[in-house]
Every structure is written in structure tokens, then in C-alpha cells.
Design goal:
The protein has a domain of 36 residues. 50% of the residues lie in helices and 0% in strands.
Amino acid sequence: MKDEYDFSKGERSRFFRKGAKLHLPVYLDDEVQTYLQERARSKGIEVSQLVNEMLREDIKIIEAVK
């Protein structure tokens, strides 16, 4: 790593995009991923759709208990 960096030609907010969505990566354990893939395949849907459905149900349960 250098002791100093030259930012004199840098442009503030060059890559900023208002309203851009950040999609966070989610890393699953191998056995969890395998289970979800098999479950999604049997339902004929994508893994992301299955996970979203499962999380929505969990949110309903959490909100009901509050």
C-alpha cells in the first residue's frame, strides 16, 4: 500500500445513482442451500422466490407475537 494517494483529479459522486438499489449477497451453508434448491425444484419455482416466501411467513409470525 502506498504512503500517499493522489485524489486531486477525483470527481465527487461520480458513481452515485439516486434511487439505486443495493442487492446484498446472502451466503448459505451448503446443507441449507441444497435443501432450499430441492424444495424450490419440487415446487417449480426459483430459490429466491422460495426464500422470500419463507421469510414473509416468518415476518408474519414475528409481527403476530409482538
